[in-house]
Design brief:
Largest sheet: 3 strands, mixed
Helix content: 25-40%
CATH class of the largest domain: Alpha Beta
Order of helices and strands: HEEHEEHHE
Distance between the termini: 102 Å
Length: about 170
């Protein structure tokens, strides 16, 4: 007769056990599960970090919930007033890695909504105040409207989004 060659992992499993293809599939599934678990853990950590920052800045939102879906943050809860709601939206939106905020928050005490301004290269709070209020010296209004996210009126950066409240 002679010597015949066969593929050892094909054919009937008379000896029990698994083929190398089945073993490889199991290993790949285990690695995929570990990867998904790591992604879920990072997502939970990032969501908790955003919530912690909101609380650390004394932005009180009842039943605050933050969920990240890719580069979109979904926020819900009940803010005391419109300013708090807008500050939470800006805090979350101005977070690295967040491209969009899905605001599902409610407001306990309704107020007029502020305008938002995206800082451009060369902007200062004075230039922004001149644009919206016609008076550069009204920049403290914008600074105060964006506290506690802004710590210094000179520390704004291109791409940052700011609240521009109506003058009272």
């Amino acid at each position: 007769m002679g010597l015949f060659s066969f593929i050892k992992d094909a054919g009937a499993k008379l000896f029990g056990g698994k083929t190398s293809a089945e073993k490889a599939a199991e290993e790949a599934e285990e690695k995929a599960t570990e990867h998904l678990e790591a992604i879920a853990a990072k997502k939970a950590k990032d969501e908790a970090s955003i919530k912690e920052t909101i609380n650390d800045l004394d932005l009180h939102v009842e039943n605050l919930h933050v969920s990240l879906e890719g580069d979109t943050a979904i926020i819900s809860g009940k803010a005391h007033d419109q300013a708090t709601k807008e500050k939470v939206v800006l805090l979350v939106g101005n977070t690295h890695g967040i491209a969009m905020v899905d605001d599902r928050m409610e407001v306990e005490h309704k107020e007029p909504e502020a305008q938002f301004h995206t800082v451009a290269k060369g902007d200062t709070l004075g230039k922004i105040a001149k644009k919206y209020y016609g008076n550069a010296m009204k920049y403290p209004t914008i600074f105060e409207a964006n506290k506690p996210m802004l710590k210094d009126p000179n520390l704004i950066y291109p791409g940052q989004v700011l609240r521009i409240p109506a003058l009272k």
